[in-house]
Design brief:
The protein has 250 residues and is an alpha+beta fold. It folds into two domains: 37 residues; 196 residues, Porin (Beta Barrel), CATH 2.40.160. It is built from three helices and eight strands. The protein has an eight-stranded antiparallel β-barrel. It is elongated, with a radius of gyration of 24 Å.
Length: 250
């Protein structure tokens, strides 16, 4: 995770530097010989109007959600629809759909279930039950924007909403099959819970209507309270183009 964040930050810094040089009209050829400035053409890549803030924004991205306590990584997509109310304030809705695989181990279970396993399994026996997880998140709320740079905009937001999770247990030996039959006879279980936390990121403004968003959300939730002993913390990362349209916000 730390390596991923470092690479992302390095990319953002390099891209910002390149954008700043482009914005200032600085170019260098292979022989390091200065060239006269070229007049910008009338195209979609024209400079961004300083006072233009679109009314609407759409963002759809590949997404990555990790839950370290469960050793669970889920991948899928994340989509946002945002309405800019003021230059500094937006409201929006957020949806993501993700899935992944991991194993349930006794240390993650409630004390009652751990006692059941202790009475049913010989001491020293290693137990791990593979499972498939599918998650959907639904969120809505405000977003606070910082637009002091022309080529980049920063934002922070409270992260809150609902999380629906379905797990399908896939025991791979007679012992775990017998244990799963006692605890989750159907081998499938679903839960709906609330999550809360904080999110934020940066938009790199490539043109008037297109940018690139780097977003991260840090959230807490408690799933399957009848199975798992404690709540979980998750980190969701998303990177993709963002599209803007509508009249300018004052």
């Amino acid at each position: 995770m730390s390596a991923l964040l470092k690479q992302g930050m390095a990319f953002v810094i390099a891209l910002l530097a390149g954008l700043e040089l482009t914005a200032n009209g600085q170019t260098v050829d292979a022989d390091l010989v200065p060239t006269p400035p070229v007049q910008a053409s009338n195209s979609s890549a024209a400079p961004i109007p300083e006072n233009y803030i679109s009314r609407y924004e759409i963002f759809a991205a590949p997404s990555y959600l990790t839950t370290p306590k469960l050793n669970l990584v889920q991948r899928g997509f994340n989509a946002d629809f945002v309405i800019n109310v003021k230059r500094w304030l937006s409201v929006g809705v957020d949806y993501s759909n993700l899935s992944g695989n991991s194993d349930v181990v006794p240390q993650e279970l409630t004390p009652t279930l751990q006692q059941l396993l202790a009475s049913s399994v010989p001491p020293g026996t290693l137990i791990a039950v593979p499972y498939r997880s599918a998650a959907q998140t639904f969120g809505a709320g405000p977003q606070f924007n910082f637009r002091r740079l022309r080529r980049a905009s920063f934002f922070v937001r409270p992260a809150g909403g609902g999380l629906h999770e379905t797990i399908t247990l896939n025991p791979d030996n007679p012992l775990t099959s017998a244990l799963v039959a006692q605890i989750v006879p159907s081998r499938k279980k679903s839960d709906l819970t609330l999550f809360y936390g904080v999110g934020g990121g940066v938009d790199l403004n490539m043109s008037k209507h297109v940018g690139v968003r780097f977003a991260a959300d840090f959230v807490h939730y408690k799933l399957f309270s009848d199975l798992l002993a404690t709540g979980q913390n998750g980190v969701r990362l998303s990177v993709a183009p963002i599209f803007r349209f509508g009249g300018s916000v004052k």
